[in-house]
């Protein structure tokens, strides 16, 4: 069976090139996180982002989302609560269930992180030609859509386009 496209356009070759190029994107993305105060681990940041996306999520739901055991997530939430970024509150539907919500400080931290990421990406994008920026966006959106399809890495996430 013949492959479509020239030999240097194989999925394996492209995957190697993409992996190398993605390192610059990931480095820019994570550099913004390093400037956050208080400094957060990747898991702490992921937990805050999930709680922001789904205010009122309970510990079990958060544990499923981050792929950790509920006791470990409870300790994680204890630390985030002690830092003033997260609070536990009774769920409106059941007094026995506890939901998680970001505090004002937690929301401000995430807003500042998003602004820093935007600033850093804008600086890099400003060094690219307009056609390259459009190509980059087109390629990344296509990649995101493919990843969101059944069997993709992000099958549960809805993406634009």
Automatic annotation (TrEMBL):
Which SMART domains does this entry report, sorted A to Z?
Answer: HTH_MARR
Q: Does the keyword Transcription apply?
A: yes
Question: Which sequence ranges form a coiled-coil region, renumbered to this chain?
Answer: none
* Domain called HTH marR-type: residue spans: 11-145
Instruction: Recite the UniProt keywords alphabetically.
Output: DNA-binding, Transcription, Transcription regulation
At the top level of its lineage, which domain of life is listed? Answer: Bacteria
Recorded hits in SUPFAM superfamilies, A to Z, give: Winged helix' DNA-binding domain
The name on file for this protein is MarR family transcriptional regulator
